[in-house]
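Appendix B. Extra example for self-study. Work through it before the problem class; the solution is given directly after the inputs so you can check yourself.
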Amino acid sequence: MNTQPQAVFLINLVQDVNILRPLIVMADRDFGFDVRLMVSSLFEGRDSSGIWQRELKEIAQESSARIDVFKSEFEALALLDGHGLLFAGSESHLRGHAPCHDVFRVAPASYLRVTLQHGFECVGFRHSEAHKLAHGPTASFAADMVCAWFRAEHVDALSPSQRGKLIVTGPSAVLQQFRDPLPGSGKRPGLICENLHSVRLSAMGDMKAEFVDVFSAFCAAVDDGTQPAVCLRPHPGGQYMLRNKVPLPANVEVENAPMYRLDMRRFSYGISAPSSVLLDMVLAGIPTAVWRDRAGRMDTDNYADLPGVSTVEEWVAFARQAQDDPGSFAEAREAFLARFGLLTDPGEVHRRYAGLFAMALRNAPQLATARDLGGVVAVVPASALPA
Amino acid sequence: MKFTFVIPSREFLASAGARIRYLRMVSLMKESGHVLDLVPIEEFGKLADPGQVVVFSKCFDARAIVFAARCRAENRLVGIDLFDDYFSQTEDSRMTVYRTWLTQMLKHGHFAICSTPRMSDIVHALCPQMPVHVFNDPATDLRLDALPALLKAKRERALRDRTISLGWFGIGDNPFFSVGLEDVNAFGAQFAPLTARGWTIECTVLTNARALDANRLAALGRLPFPVRVELWSEERETELLLDSLCCFLPVNAQPFSIAKSLNRAVSALTCGSQVVWAGYPLYGRLDELIYADPVSLIDDLERGHLRLSPERLPLYSTLMEKLASLDVEVERLLTFVAGIGQPGAVAPGSIVRALVHGHQTNGDAHKAARKARMLSVATPFAPSTLTYDVIFTGRVAGGDLQMLVAEPVCERMRPEAADKMRPFGTIQKVRYFAIDWPENRVMALQDWSTAALPEVLAAYRGIFPAVHHRLEKVFGPVEMMISESSRLPFDPGAQA
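Solution. Structure tokens for the complete assembly:
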């Protein structure tokens, strides 16, 4: 058995990579854990473009991490051969999160299991009305600890049985923000993000067509010959516009780079339906607007402080104002961040995650002995494990 | 005498069922001047001579029914080997497909072989006149020479380390029933008192990968002792049993579980492993050698009077001879088969055989039936992809059932029926004739494939007696066989 404490990261959805990456770096660079990336066999199928596999390999190389693929809980259990921390970016009792949830359920007691909030509105942390319709008012975790982005009183979808697990760490994404001055100036394109796969655009009625229509009309309206006038960013896991081959106007460029490679400051504004990407836009300090369906069926309450746009005229007016007077949106951004007590100071967020890593290191001997107390040890012949 | 045991597939030979039951039998039969072949059902049709006795094992589809009927017509003795109870759960609609299959098989079989008296009772209840033989699962090797030293070493090591090496092995799950690891998880807490008496338990589980899902693994993790889980293999099973002081064999009381054989207890005992059972007293016939309670095992271990010990090997030997001796079992089987005698000769051509296809069927059964000159008959619900000899369309209710006969089999019709045939049209490049065609009605094939399931289920029940009746009117006496592979509760009904 390996005696060095491990930091194991479960990767199942492609968006897990973005959430976990800063902690993978911390585990290796700041604390010297034996870093392991355990990737579910479903991940490869979800990564249709292959982007995320390359990213994972690069992250693993930079953090001296080992990558293992697991096909079943039994194989995962066989890989969990030590002690330390076990992180998941998306873990709850919901079906889509089952691979990580089930590994957590069978993990030996020698691992402290940590689930991270992975979105601003996030299952088990804070639900929109669409989440409530689709998944119910709460969700449960198999984790020992759950890390939230904002103050506990705003974590209102947490089941009472899970409250003792809650710690507030802030979003890991603030640890990978761009800080260097932005080179060059001149006209910058706008950023439109789509998450049409999300329950938010289907639970209250089908709003996908409305979004596509207003997006196309907007692109035509702002077509002044600039290339590109608009960048479209599909949700990394959903990729709705690409998967469904929605025709894109000529002045649109698709931007699919991982969030930590995309400096949002190079956009003059950002528009999205309710989605965590709005928080990324706000943190990048660009004018940010929330798309709302014209009938107002979609629940956008959590983003109430940000300006809303529905009709193409509103989109165009917002884009113009963003380009002419970007400073006029600063107040809205501040109000949005303040409302939930969102932790955005990278130093503070680092300090809080560091506390978690340090605690695990301090208690490593106890965790190691927990292996001998009971539980299941899985023995898988090397030949049965995926290469 | 030549025996052919028909098995579901080549892979089946690797399963515990085939391994324990048949492979050991093959060589012994050879020694006593008989031949026993194990043939996968997909190869059975090509066999030149299957021998005097053909036994079907776990081939749960219409191919077995067709081959059984064919073998019976060829004056061979037809047997059915039954060692899992998928049949007695009459209130469980998931098992309909198995009950339908067995009902068909019992019509063509001359005898049944069962692994336990309980299975034998089940067959007897369904078919009281059928001769049934209980063939106990035999042990490979009683290890009478090795056991004294092995038992002594195991006991000494346990006392020295104050550790119970506990083993569990087998299929950990079942698609229908709660078995295996769920029994371990349900009864495992019985070992908790041993820890309080200062004993350490080291448990190893050998099982199949499919059983190791999160629910079962998580439950194993909550047992009052650590569990090491490995994937089962025959070699690992033997190693584990030779190494373990004790084997834990909990059994729940559902019909499926209580029809199981003694083989797991026999395997454990013959490797010098004590047995602790829990739940249903499945292993009652071995009572004198095994434990119902882990605490008694510890008491005996500490006092030096283990139930399986060098001093008690004569008892062990007697019980194994009675319940698990390959020689004895093979001899009994041969005597049983000889006692049945040769089947009465079947007059050729005296009866028409028809394989009638229900909602889902087996294409190879259709081919085998036609090759054996049986009629392949479609009910209105049968898949339209096969070229049938007779097609029924319409619905039973209201008397709207239409019968279409393919041109090549028209010559087999009774003359009075042939008078009533009218051209219908071509289906799958074959010309069909309608019988009893009502002159003034325009009929077409009725498409049931898009009908709502409840409607199909409701219409299905009455179809087989109606089809049988019409077939006999047109072809004379018909022996009907039913092919139904659907997992849905398509029940042909008792009268079919």
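Self-check: DSSP finds 13 helices and 14 strands in chain A. If your reasoning did not lead you there, revisit section 3.
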